[in-house]
Amino acid sequence: MSELFDKSIRTLELPRVLQLLSEQAVSPEAKELALAVRPETDYEDVLRLLDQTDGARAMIVLRGAPGFSGVKPVKDLLDRADRGGSLNIPELIRIGDLLYAARRAKEYFNADAAEPTALDQIFLSIHGNRFLEDKIRRCISDENTVADAASPELADIRRHMRAALAKSRQILQKIISSPSYSKVLQDNIITQRDGRFVVPVKADQKGNLPGLIHDVSSTGATVFVEPMGVVQANNELKELQAREEKEIDRILAELSAEAASFREDINLDYELLIRLDVIFARAKLSNKMHAMAPGLSTKGLNLRRARHPLLPPKTAVANDLSLGETFDTLVITGPNTGGKTVTLKTIGLLTLMAQCGLHIPAGDRSEVSVYERVLADIGDEQSIEQSLSTFSAHMKTIVEILQEADRDSLILFDELGAGTDPVEGAALAIAIIQHVRALGARAAATTHYAELKTFAMTTPGVENASCEFNVETLSPTYRLLIGIPGK
Fold first, then answer.
1. What was the pLDDT predicted at 383?
2. Half-sphere exposure of residue 33: CA atoms within 13 angstroms, side-chain side
3. What angle do CA 136, 139, 144 make, to 5 degrees?
4. DSSP secondary structure string, 301-362?
5. Which residues of the chain have a pLDDT value below 50?
């Protein structure tokens, strides 16, 4: 994509529409992909994208949107596991969540035998892995814990740990409850130091409770003693904890190796789910905008009741817009703030949206064409940095457009020839339009020059249009009238 086409995409505010698209996506990567969408320039590719959006919207109507909340990147995790690395608990949970999302997507697709859609092949390509998903769920109870059910060995170790723990606490409970130790203890509590159970003893009474000293308080008044009767039980607990840790490492390594053995299928599922997330985001945005699927035409653009997608639906004026079927150039005239620039942007933006696979806010039987490039010169291009006046900056952009344009281009000029002597500006504007037509490009231009109205009236293939103005209220209606020059 050329730098000029990319600049025109920004000028026509496609990134703002893509931000709305990103907000409809669920997974983080789908949101990023939505923001990075660029218009396709191949007719078949655009048709495929629009068919996918149609299919997703039809599915949403029947059964709501599928869930993509557990879809997060796993490729790096699976690559590490494939090299023999062991994944930790949160990483295995991430893989389990992805497998769950894949299974739910398959169930969603199979939930209701509906008409075939352009999404069928994507859904049918999802593998899922219920066995591995259930194994991860069974082995991992939460983000910090491997469940007892993960292995008989782990369940046995933990049963012995609970017994040793109960034995330690029972001995300590007797000590802190015994009247004979009330003068020895600083507090009647059981605490831990270095993973071993201890009781707080007054420093000057430490000889009266035989045991191992593990710590001293900051004031030195309290020592933390592990009574001799508890040492054996604590030692047993320590050994069991080491065995538990070793068994957990073995279980995580086993799960990691099993996940790695399916890495190609899991990676493909991730890619397919991300792709579906973006497609369903397009369908959800279509619903939100009350949009529809445009037809694709090789003849030109024909929009019915088209609205600018970034204007509030209740205030945006719907217009019928056409270009390319009976005329290749549209000259739009009318008063300032009458809606000429919005009309121009609507033509460009709806074309770009359709080429991104997005539905457009327009009526039934609306059609757009697919262009190699949409090039726009709209807005105040004055450049202080390059010491260019508004006129010079516009001319610089126009020269770049004329160098890049061809018969597969849609060209949009705002206030063509403005900013210089009116007579020269009008002559220049006519010359530019004639050159664009000679290239075979489609073009729409806004202007104040009466000479261009005359040029449009007397030149076959060039059509006048105007933004309606209510003379009684002295205010614009923002309605476009094709075939009628503006006053």
1. 46
2. 19
3. 100
4. EEEEEE--TTS-TTTPPPEEEEESSS-SEEEEE--TTSSHHHHHHHHHHHHHHHHTT--BS-
5. 382-384
